[in-house]
Amino acid sequence: MLFNSYEFIFFFLPISFFIYFYLNHKRLTTASKAWLIFCSLFFYSWWNIIYLPLILASIIFNYVIAKKMTEFDEHKKNYFSRKSILQIGLIFNIGLLAYFKYMDFFILNANMVLNTNYGLYQLALPLAISFFTLQQIAFLVDSYEGLAKEKSFLNYTLFVVFFPQLIAGPIVHHKEMLPQFVRVRNKVKNYKNIALGLFIFSIGFFKKVVLADTFAVWATAGFDTATSLNLFAAWATSLSYSLQLYFDFSGYTDMAIGAALLFNIKLPINFNSPYKATGMIDFWKRWHITLTNFIFAYIYMPIVRLFEESTFHKVMFATLIAFLISGLWHGASWMFVLFGGLHGIGVVVNHYWQKYWRKKLKINLNKYLAWLITFNYVNITFIFFRATNWDDAIKVLQGMVGLNGIMLPVKLENKLAFLTQYAIEFGSWASEINGSNWVPIILALGFILLTTKNSIQMINYPKLHIQKFVMKRQAIFFGIILFITLVLEKKYSEFLYFNF
Fold first, then answer.
1. How many whole angstroms separate alpha carbon 73 and alpha carbon 18?
2. In sequence order, what are the residues at sequence separation of 6 or more whose Cβ sits closer than 8 angstroms to the Cβ of residue 171?
3. What is the CB neighbour count within 10 angstroms for residue 123?
4. Residue 384 domain-assigned (yes or no)
5. What's the rounded mean pLDDT across residues 376-404?
6. 314, 209, 246, 296: which is closest to 497 by C-alpha?
7. What average pLDDT does the chain have?
8. Domains in the chain, number
């Protein structure tokens, strides 16, 4: 079920909301929690019920493993040590992810290297497996460290399957979520949270349907349809995808945060105007923040602890490895690994710049130049994130540097006809992507992204200070945006991170 579908907006969300708070009003708190779990599993099963047993088995297994570690008594005779129990849990989760997400990838590469011809499994990727696996790995590791103790199976299950964040994040942490499920005041309808939730949800809905899906048309035409791209068409293609990815994923996160607020649950912030970043370190503090936090705590830090002596160079090596792993987490493709490696290199270079060149040589970049370098680097690396193969990526990159020609608008031909001697042509300068209005739209959206507050800043989240007149204004805004978006929506399209 999609957040941007009529079924979700007009049936699933209101029904789950009203019954949940009705049960709480009757002080049937256990029943209300069970209802929310049922709704979440129904939401998950809407895509393909065949994988419902998989997520249930994963939840039960991880809950038992975590409980075994928290209740481990060193004075009693045990068949396994706490560390062995953790290792069993990690092998199960990583193995589950490897089997469903990477098995065909491994077979393809093995066939290529060993010159064999093993058949592919052709497995469908279970929805949300990357997200609920990471959540539970974090819970297991923290249970081993004594940082997580959850006795209630219902609370743990709700932590994993809570529908607003289940499919594509944010990647929630038990420390910030589990206490909210038992807080008494969260069992009562909060009209302030309802107003804010609808406000954020409507912004995310607009981002997805009106903005992301519009840019998707141009990006798809450039990457998948066009055989070659001239200079401007190539830049339109790459910028369109960068904006599509941002508005699609940011829109999903806004809708998730908004939907969760209806139930008085505050999900973590996942985006903070990442395209305003003035360095790659700054970018990853703003982009997919919950993934950044997971990488740091559960991938980067364990790698650093392997070193007997943590020098700066070794720490930078650990950073690069962590980003390569995060790239592979996005999908079973060398293009994702390359994307992760490029971002790792960008972060490492940024650290070296700060440590050596900026401090020792007193070299400072103008903030506008720093932004320009960062944004263009991110835009270029997203080409590898989007391209299905190396040839598609090279096609776009070649066009961006003008190797496939330069075409200017035909209306400029009379004034600039002399440029034809330099192999510059005149015509429909974006004919390859079936559009010529991309310049004002991309410039306008870019200006808005760089100069205005994001949706979270608009409401001062998570402080949630709000007056009655603001609530009314947000209710009106929600109604207008919802109406416009529903009118403009031609068909439902999946969110990009459903694929990861």
1. 44
2. 131, 134, 135, 165, 290, 291, 293, 294
3. 12
4. yes
5. 92
6. 246
7. 85
8. 1
